[in-house]
């Protein structure tokens, strides 16, 4: 059995990555249990994520001290701030602990966990990140900690919980541009509203901007677009949503979108960009920064666009609005690669987990 510690949610990041791993393992008949933090409400009956996990025979438990002792393998995606205090305070050490921070840097806390010997193995979302951070972690932790290459975050394109439906056909009146993420200021470029305002479309089509994951941190960074005093308020057709707990609602956002524009703050980079995979699965063309995990996921002009500025992002989004054939072609190519050789193919993502199971002698 493999035990996961963490959460499942619908807005990208470690929660959806954990969900993909669980779905992959269950498809291979591997016994799985999900242990959630003490304060997390997912355990309650009627929670869509909890109900889904139980439906695929995942044992779902609220954490209690002693739960990890004699656990063959414990895996966690970026839940260190909640996991490691429990492990230390309760002397609750599993036999083998596997961890990924899912970020483009190693925090001081993570280095401390390595130094204390709490992590038996760690892994990275991309090969680029492994090349950059692997040596840095070893140097700062002053010890060698095993990390195996070949990991690929799995996206289940047939998930009943998160039903992303591939289609290149969209509503012909609106040209819908989306941004999906969490309420973090670093996810926003300072010129975001000018960028979105610079996207144009043919005369009979309206550019519609739809934001998922909006909140006070986003508003503080780029200005509250819902405020009538904001100079951009009347310049764009914008719809904002806060955090979406309901995966099916998020799938509907992807279903009506044409393009995803995800341009972040200077210096910030997505380690992987889980939402990019979701966009590929739904037939939405991704336009994002030319850095981070996007470099391994996107070939410029073929499976999406990599840009160096907000103005360049607005240009390519507008170009796709005026060139429907190109948009559909790029979306189809991105989807084909996701399914054939990418992170939407279980046969591609399974070997890393198979080797972990063999290594731990489960």
Got a strand count? 12
Output the strand order for the largest sheet. Answer: 3-2-1-4-5-6
Distance between the termini: 7 Å
- Supply the number of helical segments: 13
The sequence of SSEs as H and E is EHEHEEHEHEHEHEHEHEHEHEHHH
Molecular structure report:
With 362 residues, the protein is of the alpha/beta class. Strand 10, helix 9 and strand 11 form a beta-alpha-beta unit. The protein folds into two domains: 169 residues, Rossmann fold, CATH 3.40.50; 167 residues, Rossmann fold, CATH 3.40.50. 45% of the residues are buried. Helices cover 37% and strands 15% of the residues. The protein is globular, with a radius of gyration of 21 Å. The N and C termini lie close together (7 Å). The strands form two sheets. A six-stranded parallel sheet has the order 3-2-1-4-5-6, covered by helices on one side. The chain has a six-stranded parallel sheet with strand order 9-8-7-10-11-12, with helices on both faces.
């Amino acid at each position: 059995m493999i035990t996961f510690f963490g959460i499942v949610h619908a807005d990208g990041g470690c929660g959806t990555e954990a969900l993909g791993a669980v779905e992959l393992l269950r498809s291979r008949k591997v016994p799985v249990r999900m242990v959630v933090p003490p304060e997390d409400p997912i355990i309650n009956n009627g929670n869509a994520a909890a109900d889904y996990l139980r439906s695929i025979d995942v044992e779902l438990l609220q954490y209690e001290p002693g739960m990890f002792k004699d656990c063959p393998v414990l895996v966690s995606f970026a839940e260190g701030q909640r996991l490691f205090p429990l492990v230390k305070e309760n002397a609750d050490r599993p036999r083998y602990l596997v961890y990924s921070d899912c970020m483009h840097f190693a925090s001081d806390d993570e280095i401390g966990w390595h130094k204390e010997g709490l992590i038996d193995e760690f892994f990275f979302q991309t090969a680029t990140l492994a090349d950059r951070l692997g040596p840095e972690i070893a140097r700062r932790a002053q010890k060698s900690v095993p990390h195996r290459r070949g990991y690929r975050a799995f996206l289940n394109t047939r998930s009943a919980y998160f039903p992303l439906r591939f289609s290149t056909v969209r509503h012909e009146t609106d040209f819908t541009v989306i941004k999906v993420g969490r309420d973090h200021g670093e996810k926003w470029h300072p010129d975001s509203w000018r960028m979105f305002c610079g996207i144009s479309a043919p005369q009979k089509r309206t550019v519609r901007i739809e934001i998922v994951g909006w909140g006070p941190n986003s508003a503080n960074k780029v200005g509250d677009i819902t405020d009538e005093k904001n100079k951009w308020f009347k310049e764009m057709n914008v719809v904002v949503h806060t955090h979406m707990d309901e995966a099916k609602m998020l799938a509907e956002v992807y279903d009506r979108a044409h393009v995803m524009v995800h341009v972040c703050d200077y210096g910030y980079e997505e380690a992987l960009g889980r939402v990019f995979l979701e966009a590929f699965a739904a037939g939405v063309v991704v336009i994002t920064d030319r850095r981070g995990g996007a470099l391994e996921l996107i070939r410029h002009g073929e499976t999406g666009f990599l840009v160096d500025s907000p103005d360049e992002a607005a240009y390519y989004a507008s170009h796709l609005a005026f060139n429907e054939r190109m948009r559909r072609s790029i979306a189809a190519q991105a989807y084909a690669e996701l399914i054939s050789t990418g992170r939407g193919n279980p046969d591609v993502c399974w070997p890393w987990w198979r080797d972990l199971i063999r290594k731990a002698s489960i």
